[in-house]
Amino acid sequence: MMTSPILTRRRWLLKAHGQHIVIVKGTNEKFTHPLMKALLWALYMPQYPHITVEVRIGDRYKPDVVAFDPGNLRFRENEPIFWGEAGEVGKAKIEALVKRYPDTHFALGKWAIALKRPADLVAEALKGVKRNAPFDLISFPEHSDECIDDDGNIHITHDNVTWLRL
């Protein structure tokens, strides 16, 4: 399978689980960064049906992918139930977020790498922090763009990636 023609454009209309989203690839942005955002969105949608991408939440940091509890009428003013990051994330950011949001499920997506180094970094950031939600590390295989068909449908599950839950 070849890369979907949709991914050759700057704006990608992608679909998964009966929903759709538009991902815009920045001019100087690596192809893998918006691709990982889209894949995280689709991967966690079954668990978090109200998941979205690139939404400011009133925090110093902006999540790449985020979900809130839709049962809370003022949900955007509360902590997210899911926060996904794609690519490079520093230890200071991870430390700040896991302390600030102890009940938020975090997922960090990496492109085609072994998870040992990021796992060590996250484990260090989690040391001494009381948490009530998991922290997932995801390594997307080199050809993960093949999870998107010619119509922009994303077909991905945890079976398609290497992942580790801390």
Number of helices: 3
The ordered H/E elements are EEHEEEHEHEE
Q: Might you state the CATH topology name?
A: Restriction endonuclease-like alpha-beta roll fold
| Intertermini distance | 33 Å
Strand content: 15-25%
What is the secondary structure topology, with strand pairs?
Elements (H helix, E strand, L loop, with lengths): L10 E6 L2 E6 L7 H13 L7 E2 L11 E3 L14 E5 L4 H10 L4 E7 L4 H11 L8 E6 L21 E4 L1
Helix pairs in contact: 2-3
How is this structure best described in words?
The chain has 166 residues and is α/β, with parallel strands linked by helices. It has a single domain, classed as Restriction endonuclease-like alpha-beta roll domain (Restriction endonuclease-like alpha-beta roll fold, Roll), CATH 3.10.640.10. The chain is 20% helix and 23% strand. The protein contains three helices and eight strands; from the N terminus they run E-E-H-E-E-E-H-E-H-E-E. It has helices at residues 32-44, 91-100, 116-126; strands spanning 11-16, 19-24, 52-53, 65-67, 82-86, 105-111, 135-140, 162-165. Strands 3-4-5-6-7-8 form a six-stranded mixed β-sheet, sandwiched between helices. It is globular, with a radius of gyration of 15 Å.
